[in-house]
């Protein structure tokens, strides 16, 4: 029974982290949605973001497993430190306007660049998750699902609301990652 409750706790943690990472796609999606976007482009961009939210944490998890073997007992501190740094970076960027003007989302190259840019953070989180030996398939599928879902929500919402919401969404995602990083360290 203890093992099942630990597994449920890990699953909840993965869901929360996936949603926090998806806030990046959500916040930038709001900005792109405000510039005007067709439903077909929303679908294409969201599928591509979901794909990159699978590939990047997968690569990160493999890297994290290797680093975990090298670091041994200090793995938890390093993984927590990565999450703290990533969360702090997201918070700072949200309020200082750290993102450049969005790329042309209508071209395939622009969609790939945009999808990759909002998925880069997933690599770092994947490294942390790899150090904790989380379930590989479950983790990457949840990350991909939330990346795609949050981008759809941001793009659709961007068609209807103001630009300020995007900054707060990214900051919220950063706070969640920062909190998990501190939890792993403590």
Automatic annotation (TrEMBL):
Membrane-protein topology: Multi-pass membrane protein
Subcellular location: Cell membrane
UniProt keyword Signal, yes or no: no
Key words of the record: Cell membrane, Ion transport, Manganese, Membrane, Transmembrane, Transmembrane helix, Transport
GO MF entry, a single one: manganese ion transmembrane transporter activity
GO terms for cellular component: plasma membrane
UniProt cross-references to InterPro entries, sorted A to Z: Mntp/YtaF, Put_MntP
TM annotation in the entry: 12-33, 45-68, 74-95, 107-130, 136-156, 168-185
Predominant localisation class: membrane
Family: Belongs to the MntP (TC 9.B.29) family.
Primary role: Probably functions as a manganese efflux pump.
Protein name in UniProt: Putative manganese efflux pump MntP
The species this protein was found in: Paenibacillus glacialis
